[in-house]
């Protein structure tokens, strides 16, 4: 292989030793520069940063120094902001929890559940064109156990579509034509409301959320005079059958009433299911046929009333 020949400078002699030495020095510097550039390129390729140079690295380091950190973390403002959000969410949860676990919250929920159940029975009576009977009974097998005390509600339907009693002698005809013939069919398993009990008398106030029409004592299920002439017998357990005497008759055309001896053939304008929390002494029953509206709202504490229109079957729940 022949040696690399460097062309002589203009005006220099072809065999000038100084010109040849200068050419070899320039070539050496060029090769050194190329080697340095190649080494730098290889280093950048290994670090994965071939497009960004030292100025970018200096700027990143400067930003980290200005923030006062090198690795990951949170600033004081970010921490305060997160604490504010957590506090706000905690306040909302506490507010909702206070409303759900309030003393009267469960009482109100069970009142709404009872009202919904009565609506279901009404709709079943209208759609199937059958007479339905809804019985209410209070039981306290074990007062300390909520599953063995409270208000039990059972709904039955006459499968043959007949009423099952005669207005002239409702009780005897009911026992003869319905109970003995076992014509009643259970609409659904008895419903249990542990925090409810019937109230004998809830005088309606003249205004406010509980303002409502007065009802005869024969049509207030908590009143002793509201014993129905059409009792039903509910099987509460494998060995316990209970006679239920507080019974509402739901007609397929929407009419509703408590069948009583003195009002068996009469139209009833309204009936009422008065409710108070279990453990609360109910107001004493009165002997008046209808309660006159009070001039001021009563101080009965926590209570509720479900009224059913005797002609149209319109059902409404009253809560204070």
- Shape descriptor: elongated
Q: Which stretches are poorly predicted, pLDDT < 50 over at least 5 residues?
A: 291-299
Q: How are helices and strands ordered from N to C?
A: HHHHEEHEEEEEEEEE
Main sheet overview: 5 strands, antiparallel
Separation of termini?
Answer: 113 Å
Q: Give the rounded overall mean pLDDT.
A: 76
Q: In total, how many beta strands?
A: 11
Radius of gyration from the alpha-carbon trace, in angstroms: 46 Å
Helix share of residues? Answer: 25-40%
Question: Strand order across the biggest sheet?
Answer: 3-2-1-7-8
Strand content: 15-25%
Structural class: alpha+beta
Total number of helices? 5
Structure commentary:
By secondary structure, this protein is α+β, with helices and mostly antiparallel strands. The chain has a domain at 100-318. Helix content is 32%, strand content 21%. The chain has a five-stranded antiparallel beta sheet with strand order 3-2-1-7-8, covered by helices on one side. A hairpin with an 8-residue loop joins strand 1 (132-140) and strand 2. The protein is elongated, with a radius of gyration of 46 Å.
Write the layout of secondary structure elements.
Blueprint: H1 17-47, H2 54-67, H3 76-100, H4 105-128, E1 132-140, E2 149-158, H5 170-179, E3 184-193, E4 196-198, E5 232-237, E6 240-244, E7 246-250, E8 256-257, E9 270-277, E10 304-309, E11 315-318
Antiparallel strand pairs: 1-2, 1-7, 2-3, 4-9, 5-6, 7-8, 9-10, 10-11
